[in-house]
Amino acid sequence: MNAPDASAPEHQHTPGRLEAALRRRRANGGKALVPYLTGGLGEWVPTVEAVAQAGADAIEIGVPFSDPVMDGPTIQAASDQALREGALPYEVIEAAGAADVGIPLAVMTYYNLVFRPGVTRFAGELARAGIAGAILPDLPLDEAGPWIAAADGAGVETVLLAAPTTPDERLQRIADRSRGFLYAVGLLGVTGERASLADSAKEIARRAKAITDLPVLVGVGVSTPQQAVEVCEVADGVVVGSAFVRTVLEGGSPDQVAEQVATFRDALDRGA
Predict the structure, then answer these.
(1) Is residue 177 within a helix (H) or strand (E), and if so which, with residue range?
(2) What is the C-alpha separation between 16 and 133, in angstroms, rounded?
(3) Cα dihedral 77, 93, 36, 265 in deg (nearest 10)
(4) Is the N or C terminus of the chain more exposed, i.e. has fewer CB atoms within 10 Å?
(5) Whole-angstrom Cα distance, residue 201 to residue 189?
(6) What is the pLDDT of residues 194-225, one digit of tens each?
(7) What are phi and psi of 240, to 5 degrees?
(8) How many other C-beta atoms can be found within 10 angstroms of the C-beta atom of residue 116?
(9) How far is CA 232 from CA 33, 69, 192, 206, 225, in A?
(10) Cβ(126)–Cβ(107) under 8 Å?
């Protein structure tokens, strides 16, 4: 049996846990906050639990990989340290699923870690652990059919990314096939903290919002609560990673990271 065409429009679908949580935030007039944390790094499970209590709508867990091409220096350093500390993909997934959070979790990793065990096994491991979604930034839509079929079958929401340079026609196909949310990449380049919000962040959010009802969250280049509020003048929410991961790398406790997340939550609530 051939895998379905990953780029085929699928406007009608039943929202999974991740998408439903983000839609609830939007329906209540708010803006979604999805922190990113590196799995396997230090006291990461207590940090995930503390961040969930600090007002996150969902949490993105990075499964460490030796060549994280989308990630800038901070998250690369975190992945390297986690690997040195012995982080293994399935152990990270299992520990994430066992965390006491009460909100949806999504994993972010690279396709090599999916390809080696096979898409069916990897999707099944996520589902068994209770992971709601998956983000594979180096897997293009045109090659994603086998993974998407396996993820759909396991009930795992595949979050797709759209870059600022994505043409309109391709943006529509990405939006039609994304689940959970549409990840609008705020700027060209790798993840990392920036002194100011790139103009492209609001522009890609505006373009995406014009063509889909799926929650549109902007990530990459959103570094401060003020930047989060600014981009959420258009977007439905933000994904923030490097600012929190840096705190972990600098020895911050779970409570300190949670306090940092709470400042983003408060700013979004006041600015929304």
Answers:
(1) helix 168-177
(2) 9
(3) -150
(4) N
(5) 12
(6) 444 657 889 999 999 999 999 999 998 788 99
(7) -125, 125
(8) 10
(9) 10, 27, 19, 10, 11
(10) yes
Does residue 71 have an active-site annotation? Answer: yes
Do 75 and 126 meet the contact criterion of CB atoms below 8 Å apart? no
Q: Give me the catalytic one of 19, 49, 57, 60.
A: 60
Q: How far, in Å, CA of 39 to CA of 45, rounded?
A: 8
d(CA 240, CA 126): 22
Q: What is the pLDDT of residues 46-90, one digit of tens each?
A: 999 999 999 999 999 999 988 766 677 899 899 999 999 999 999
What domains can be seen in the chain, in order of their start residue?
A: 32-271 (3.20.20.70)
Helix (H) or strand (E) holding 95: helix 89-98
The segment with the largest mean pLDDT, out of 2-16, 69-83, 102-116, is: 102-116
Cβ–Cβ < 8 Å for 253, 43: yes
Active-site residue identified among 71, 125, 157, 193: 71
Query: CA separation (Å) from 34 to 114, 172, 257, 264, 266?
Result: 23, 23, 13, 10, 14
255 catalytically annotated? no
Sign of CA dihedral 77, 219, 121, 21: positive
Other Cβ atoms less than 10 A from the Cβ of 165: the count is 10
CB atoms within 10 A of CB 8: 10
Output the CA angle 247-248-251, nearest 5 degrees.
90
Reading the block at residue 83, the tokens are: 């690997």
Residue 12: the pLDDT is 67
Helix (H) or strand (E) holding 106: strand 105-108
Statement: the pTM of the whole predicted model exceeds 0.85:
yes
DSSP 195: S
